[in-house]
Design a protein that fits this description.
Blueprint lengths: L1 E5 L2 E3 L21 E3 L1 H18 L2 E8 L4 H10 L3 E6 L5 H12 L6 E5 L10 H9 L3 E5 L1 E5 L2 E8 L2 E8 L2 E5 L11 H7 L4 E4 L30 H10 L5
Parallel strand pairs: 1-4, 1-6, 4-5, 5-12, 6-11, 7-11
Antiparallel strand pairs: 2-3, 8-9, 9-10
Length: about 250
């Protein structure tokens, strides 16, 4: 079984987010970065579990510069077999998906995993785009995945219940909470990661069609106003003059 896991580097969840003065770029000064939790905790760990049970390989793929190498090495320490970094700045979800798909086309992967979304953009776009470029089935927000031969059985939460699906390999899946449990790299894994194959490849030419041009921060939240139960006139005034309908 050959599995490809797409991983991305994201700001730590405790980071204070800001942008450059013109709003065109994220300001990464002083920011700590981590592997996107949905990629790490659910997609990567479940991929490793499947290979540990059925045999095969888990390849990590990342689109980014050399500053992503530490994040990729962590994935190798968790249990991936090898890694590939597409040496390009990830300008948009479409660009990332194209680079991943072009590499994957010649490798005959049985499953392509990604997290359901990245915690910085929350777009949930890359997985579906990769599937489209590969012309393969796509299952989004899967919370469980088991495989028997070439048939995978997946579950995902829906309104009021759980949906169960079957799909034949090859396919693309985005992993949500419940797919696996977080793994902490141990010392042996960290040492082995240093010698695991790590390939850096050039990007394919691609006329990006969806590049963000400006970012803005949401307005700061205002404080809660407390109104005495005996002062209904003030409550009515606030509802008329200050309350906003969302």
């Amino acid at each position: 079984m050959k599995i490809l896991v797409c991983i991305s580097k994201t700001p730590d969840t405790t980071s204070k987010i800001s942008f450059t003065a013109d709003g065109a770029k994220f300001n990464d000064a002083g920011i700590s970065f981590i592997m996107n939790p949905y990629d790490e905790w659910y997609a990567l760990v479940r991929a490793c579990e499947l290979v540990e049970k059925n045999g095969g390989t888990v390849t990590l793929i990342n689109v980014g510069g050399a500053d992503n190498d530490q994040t990729i090495r962590k994935g190798l320490a968790i249990g991936a077999t090898d890694a590939v970094r597409i040496d390009a700045e990830p300008k948009s979800a479409l660009f990332i998906a194209k680079q991943i798909a072009e590499y994957a086309k010649s490798q005959n992967y049985d499953i392509v995993f990604c997290g359901k979304e990245s915690i910085d953009y929350n777009g949930s776009e890359v997985g579906a785009m990769v599937a489209e470029y590969l012309d393969q089935p796509f299952v989004s927000y899967a919370s469980k995945l088991d495989i028997n031969g070439n048939t995978a059985t997946l579950e995902r939460d829906i309104e009021g219940g759980v949906e169960i699906l079957e799909v034949q390999t090859p396919f693309v899946v985005s992993a949500a909470k419940g797919m696996a449990e977080q793994r902490i790299p141990n010392m042996m894994g960290i040492m082995k990661a240093k010698s695991k194959p790590f390939q850096v490849v050039a990007p394919v030419e691609f006329p990006d069609l969806a590049v963000p041009v400006k970012f803005t921060l949401p307005k700061e939240k205002t404080g809660v106003k407390l109104v005495s139960p005996d002062d209904m006139d003030e409550l009515v005034r606030l509802l008329h003059e200050e309350a906003k309908v969302i």
